[in-house]
Amino acid sequence: MTLQSEAVLERALSLGWATFKRAWPLLLVAVLALLVASIPGSVVGQVIQVAGTVIGRAGNSPNAPMIAMVVSMAVSWLISAAVVWPVQAGGYAAATRASRGRSHDFGAILAGFRRFLPVFGANFVLTVVTLAIYLPLVALSWNALWPWLQSGGMQMPDFAQLRIVPTIIVGVVCFVAHYVVFARTMLAIPRAVDPDLPPIGAIDAVRFSLEATKGHTLIGIGVLILMSTVVVLGFLLCCVGALVVGLPLALALNIGFYRALLNDPDLPPEGALSAEPWTGPTPPQSPV
Questions:
Q1: Assign residue 101 a region: left if phi > 0, alpha if psi is -120 to 50, beta otherwise?
Q2: How many C-alpha atoms does 131 have within 13 Å on its Cβ side?
Q3: How far apart are CA 268 and CA 20, in angstroms?
Q4: CA-to-CA separations, 237 to 57, 242, 243, 272, in angstroms, rounded
């Protein structure tokens, strides 16, 4: 059964808030795991970028600094993504399990590694799409960025080359397009890592999100704005609020939207025994 947009929004907010209240410790651990996972990638990335800068400056070619910077940034990004993306997906898996009634499934945080290929692939596709959205802005700013790129990051961009008004207009258009695309694809990772549903490939996960959000783009944008708002308000509380409230609540709202469009039922209460399928020749008969 397909829900109307009003019902989707109502159920998404209801599920998100209920998940936050019921499973706040699990959501907090998922957020902390993501923060911890970002540390090794950042350290390795800095080391690779410094090494790339040194190699580039030692090269004889005038383009050596640029090539070294681009290669080192790409390598460090891939290394960081290989750790951060599965942990981020594990947060979605844990929040999904909590939303369905399993508020203590801390092992679900590792689900992103168990489904590494679809999670990494879907994230990679979405990253490429996002970069493509901002290509017009990069093209418009190319004259300003070129000195910085050619120097391997050693010089500041030449902001005097920017055409301010066109850059602002194109930047706003790219940002709005990014929000619309994000609203349509924000369910790809939760579906790719969902531990209660059969595994699917990266492209199928993106297709699922596009199909599920069809006709609900404005609702998705509204949920994204609400998620961004609670995170920003959390940062205003000495940044601690973002960690304790903002990010866990945003995660719960994201999963609330996912489950609202998936329209799936809750799991049996924790501790309840599920009925085992009857394997005999005929089902057992209850006396009348």
A1: left
A2: 6
A3: 19
A4: 43, 8, 10, 40
Residue 63 near residue 55, CB atoms below 8 Å: no
What are 95-114's pLDDT values in tens digits? Answer: 999 998 888 889 999 999 99
Q: What angle do CA 265, 271, 276 make, to 5 degrees?
A: 70
| Closest to 14 (Cα-Cα) out of 2, 184, 22 | 22
DSSP for 81-123? HHHHHHHHHHHHHHHHHHHTT-TT-GGGGGHHHHTHHHHHHHH
User: Which residues, other chains included, contact 161 with Cβ-Cβ below 8 Å and sequence gap of 6+?
Assistant: 143, 144
Main-chain phi, psi angles of 213, to 5 degrees: -90, 0
pLDDT tens digits along 14-23:
999 999 999 9
Binned at pLDDT 50, 70 and 90, residue 65 comes out as: low
Closest CA to 96 of 9, 7, 187: 187
Q: Nearest Cα to 252, choosing from 85, 103, 84, 38?
A: 103
pTM: 0.81
What distance, in Å, lies between the first and last C-alpha atoms of the chain? 35
Long-range CB pairs of 205-210 (<8 Å, 24+ gap) are: 205/118, 205/122, 206/122, 206/125, 206/126, 209/184, 209/185, 210/184, 210/185
Residue 3 makes CB contacts below 8 A (sequence gap 6+) with 11, 260, 261, 263
Look-up of token digits 């990772």: 189
The residues spanned by each domain of the chain are: 5-262
Give the burial string for 174-200 (b: 16+ CB within 10 Å, else e): beeeebbbbbbbbbbbbbbbbbeeeeb
